[in-house]
Design brief:
Porin; 56% strand; 16-stranded antiparallel β-barrel; 17 strands; mainly beta
Length: 362
Amino acid sequence: MKKTLFALTIAGMSGTLTAADFTLYGVADVGLRFTHQSETGKQDVNQLQMMSGQNAGSRFGFKGTEALGNGWSVGFQLENQYDVDTGALRKGLLFHRQSTVHVSGPYGTMMFGRVGTLSSAAGTYDVIFGIGDPVDGGDGAVPGVLSYESRRDNMVIYASPNLSGFRGYLEYSFGQKSESEQSSQNERYMGVGLRYTNGALDSALTYEHVRYADNPSMENNLNFDDKTVVSFAGSYDLQVTKLQMIAQWMKGADNLGNDWIGKGFDGWAVQLGNTTPLGGGLLYVMAGYADGEYAAPVVGEGKQFDLSAWSLGVRYWYPFSKKTALYTGVGYQQFERDFLSSQQGTYENKVTQVYLGLTHKF
């Protein structure tokens, strides 16, 4: 009732919206997490923290649409992200998660603004992680070993209508934050995707390319190869469990999960998982492995190494109602770098986590 009254108040102030086409929504997610980290050359760290957004990013948003007739409509979505434990806005942005305007019709949808990419694990067109990752983008301190492209500013997106189960996507970002007058100094993102859904089967194939900015004041004047990632995601619902997977080929990648390697990683990764109804809730299981090599553009910097990584996560989610749920989980992740320089040897970073939290949607 209060939500409807608030929507009516906003509608009355703007003179353009009605309660029927305006939605106020949000998530409050908070819990505790214990993390043990073991890193080569450093003392082991044990940490107990209050964390926001372990199961779902805490957010507050508005969205609305207006029907224009003949199957056409225009709409918007403004969605922030905040930390329940501190009240701070994520990255200091008013609408960090999404800030878009879209036009939809019989020939598809055009969207403009800040939004998640095809492999962002967030946003309207989150097809890779949304299909193939049981926890849709990692699990707290164990985010998995897949490379992702998060949200991008200045995006233009075209999403086709559903054609016999197929749907296509085209995405382009003119640059992050403010755009430079010289396009070569903007880090530009391009994505192409195809999704196919048929009954219990859901799948997607994407090609993503990041053209790194030419900026001589950064990266020690080095020019890095552009990033290219080809991803395939699939899921099949057997009713007793849903099988899920993601496979990736990468060239010039800069991250595996939350391990920001540095631009220039070439390799592959695969993740398998499933979602199973259990005891009135859902049990999520995922395991991933990645392998490849990283080489800095300048030989002799001591940054040439082979990299292998693997992760394992288990989460249980139990709903008390349609809006409130309790969750708990455990996870382990390990990154190993074998440096080509014999003087540097092997570097390992191991993380173990246990967590418990509560999610409320409104």
